[in-house]
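Marked as duplicate of an earlier ticket. Keeping the data here for the record.
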Amino acid sequence: MAFAITQNCCNDASCLSVCPVNCIHPTPDEPDFGKTELLYIDPRSCIDCGACADACPVDAITRVSRLTGDQAIYADINADYYRDRPSVAEWGAPKFPPASINSMPRFDVAIVGTGPAACYAAQALLRVPSSRITFYDRLAVPGGLARFGVAPDHVGTRRIGEHFRSVFVHPRVTMKLGVDIGTDITHDDLGRRFDAVVYGTGADNDRPLDIPGIDLPGSLSARTLVGWYTGHPDVSADAIDLSDVRRVTIIGNGNVALDAARILTADPADLVGTDISPHALAALRGSAVTEVVVAARRGPEFAAFTRSEAQALVNRRGVDVAVSGPAEALSAIDELPISAPGSALQGVASVDDAVPGTARRVVFSFGRAPVRLNGSPRVDSVEFSDGTTAESDLVLLAIGYRGTPSPGMPFNEVLGAIRNVDGRVVAEDGEPMARRYVVGWAKRGATGGIGDNKVDAEETVDALLQDIAANPPEPKKRLSRLRTR
């Protein structure tokens, strides 16, 4: 009986290297890698050894015979990926470290950020015996997105933090927390102190939505809600008040939107024992929320959420799920293949036909682009391009993230990321900046999940090591600390 990869999959490919029969795809060498929401096990080739399950850092791999009723669909999803693919795939060419890896001189690298991308970069660098790493983070606690971006009820996904814990306590790693690079220490000062600097600062701002009323009280970034329920130090405990909020409209339909919808309609008892912040748990116990509308400007065939996230909402007991929108949008749901994210909504009743069975519900509203937020002094409704209006006590913007420019660092305004070529930071004139590198969302923009950062980081570290090998750093006095402002 084969194994199957389920919802928690982080896509970091840790399972691939231990599979003795090469039955997990797509691999980093294949075109689909980074474009699928999961990796998939071929049930025709799997020999049931369980090595992949042992290697998975987020417990996403389960024997098919042990899938729960809610997870059973993943046996079909894994098998469907191989429907038109050969049962025996060729092994990719082996990749070996450079022969000079053990003879490289000592070099010191500063890594700015402590999230997944930064940690994957550190893992790659620590394979070189002569490397030394110093992490810098603006916050007083490490973890980045793995700590403050993953919903508390995604217990499996949050285990990725345990996977990185060994990096933070490695004997060749130093941690400098509560230091804001660009403010407390300039980028130039950091570059002079270290032989290389790797930026893994993520994306800490929202993509803008320029419509009337977007700045009304009661209109917030979903990023604020996420920080509120994960206990982010930048978000105050009273940032969200749900005591008088009955209907919430979320603009956008990516995974952040679905996380927000799920937490806002959750039974607080189900969140006890998770990493949810105490103030959020208390607020949810007194919440008046009865409905959350997830508004998507396009149809279900263009859904931005992953199938796994939608499946988790549909399978949840105690909360109704319905769909709304133009007739052609709703009819498109039934035509979607099983691999399409929107197919998770097949069989879900339309909002007009649904018979309420619980106290709370989530409505997926398709084909509705917001054009205006109304209200005085607070937001009370959202107008959409199709002429409909949704009464709302709280509006959350969840249309994507982007980075924030930092003084002294070149910035790509289109991507909302640090200007770079294959991980090497480049100046406005296109010339590489000496030994400055970037990984993760700060490199490619806010796209991809946690595991996508692994291959991304290894590409950047390969470039860094090539540069170190071609131009070894000169021995210099090692300073015990770097002065801050």
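See parent ticket for discussion. The chain has a mean pLDDT of 92.
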